[in-house]
Amino acid sequence: MNDWVIELEDIRKVYRMGEVEVNALAGLSMRVPRGEVLAIMGPSGSGKSTLMNIIGCLDRPTSGTYRLDGKTVSQMQDDDLATIRNRKVGFVFQSFNLLGRSTATANVELPLRYAGVNRGRRERAQEVLGLVGLEDRVEHKPMELSGGQQQRVAIARALVNDPAIILADEPTGNLDSRSGAEILDLLMQLNRDRGTTLVIVTHDPNVADHAQRIIRLKDGCIEEEHVSNAEPA
After folding, report:
1. Domain definitions of the chain by residue range
2. Who contacts 85 (Cβ-Cβ below 8 Å, separation ≥6)?
3. 3-state DSSP call for residue 13?
4. pLDDT tens-digit readout, 90-131
5. How far does Cα 206 stand from its chain's mean position?
6. Does residue 201 contact residue 165 with C-beta atoms inside 8 Å?
7. Which residues, including other chains, have CB under 8 Å from residue 8's CB and lie 6 or more apart?
8. Looking at residues 178-198, what average pLDDT do you find?
9. How many whole angstroms separate alpha carbon 161 and alpha carbon 174?
């Protein structure tokens, strides 16, 4: 099996606004090995969101090659991208993105539903909720949970299909400092115990310091890259 779970080669993304072309990514290349915790940082307009959308199979590059878990996905059509996204990428967002009228179990089941899994779906969802410490909250709805607990539900949802990567966009941004620290500890524990590959997009240097490697973007290119003091999985 390829040791690289993410491989980006000369990725360019051009947005056209009337007669103006905006180069959101300008020939970016990077690789992420399995089991790494990678932080992506940079100011607004640096290309972080565009890069996140391409890594998460939410968008296609204008040119260049993207391989995810050994499969070339850069020029896939929307239906195929949606399938890869469901099977290979787990998303954790700043705003949780939970269904307010559904239980924690039902929220975690969603990726399994989209994947066409029927047998054992509820049991699998509750197993993963137990993994993130919510075995006693499986029938609670989001409004009955704290912010930190809601983010744990979101992490369980991201994990339920056993994806190749978890892509976390400002995962502690809507949490108080204590809850944020607990969520970071949980993500790092998942990396240590399960070898989960984490890509974290963040403005917060305290969050980035938990990563094994930090990439800083500027004007659609990698401006700086360094290895942190975080322990590997």
Report:
1. 4-97+162-227
2. 56, 57, 58
3. strand
4. 999 999 999 999 999 999 999 999 989 989 999 999 999 999
5. 18
6. no
7. 28, 29, 30, 31, 54, 55, 64, 65, 66
8. 94
9. 25
Share of the chain above pLDDT 90, in %: 88
Residue 85, Cβ neighbours under 10 Å: how many? 21
Q: Which pLDDT score, from 0 to 100, does residue 228 have?
A: 72
* Neighbouring C-alpha atoms within 13 Å toward the C-beta of 139: 0
**How are beta strands 71-72 and 89-93 bridged, if at all?**
unpaired
* Residue position matching structure tokens 């590059």: 61
Write down the residue that tokens 């009337």 correspond to.
18
As a whole number of Å, the end-to-end CA separation of the chain is: 19
The identity of residue 179, as a single letter, is: S
Cα–Cα distance between 223 and 215 in angstroms, integer? Answer: 8
3-state secondary structure of 128: helix
For the domain made up of 4-97+162-227, give the CATH fold.
Rossmann fold (3.40.50)
8 burial (CB, 10 Å; 0-12 / 13-18 / 19+) is: buried
Torsion 144-148-153-154 (CA) sign? positive
Tokens of 187: 């993500």
Report how far residue 178's alpha carbon sits from residue 171's, in angstroms, rounded to the nearest whole number: 13
Q: Identify the bridge partners of residue 67 per DSSP, sorted by sequence position.
A: 7, 72
Instruction: Read off the pLDDT of residues 22-80 as tens digits, 9 standing for 90 and up.
Output: 899 999 999 999 999 999 999 999 999 999 999 999 999 999 999 999 999 998 999 99
Determine contact, residues 208/129, Cβ cutoff 8 Å. Answer: no
